[in-house]
Amino acid sequence: PCSGSAFTRNSSEKRISFIDFIATNGNNGNNPFNCQWLINGPAGKSIYLALNYLTIGGDCSQSNITFTLTKNVTTICNKNITSDLPLHISTGYATINFHSEISFPHAFKVSFKSYIE
Known about the structure:
This protein has strands at 2-3, 7-8, 16-23, 33-40, 46-51, 54-55, 63-68, 73-76, 80-81, 85-90, 93-100, 106-115. By secondary structure, the chain is mostly beta strands. The strands form 3 sheets. The protein has a 5-stranded antiparallel β-sheet, with no helix packed on it.
């Protein structure tokens, strides 16, 4: 049900890397499922994370996605986001946790860009 693996950004190049994280449970009834992805930032540098598209259905009791950054936790539910949601990871890591109580497809793409500060 989960695709996309841990992502590590070691490059100091000022370029954008695209990666897809996809969570889907198809038509598998109402079986809960969870996905987690880890993003590692380069030591001493920063990553700017932009969430380009995300669809979460239902309310918070049905499905949610939680971003845990070094010093920040953000939970999103019941939203359709089509604009960038910028998140800043400075020297550390982030996790993306997806949880759903119901079965319907979810797909979102995140883009990463690292800078030398």
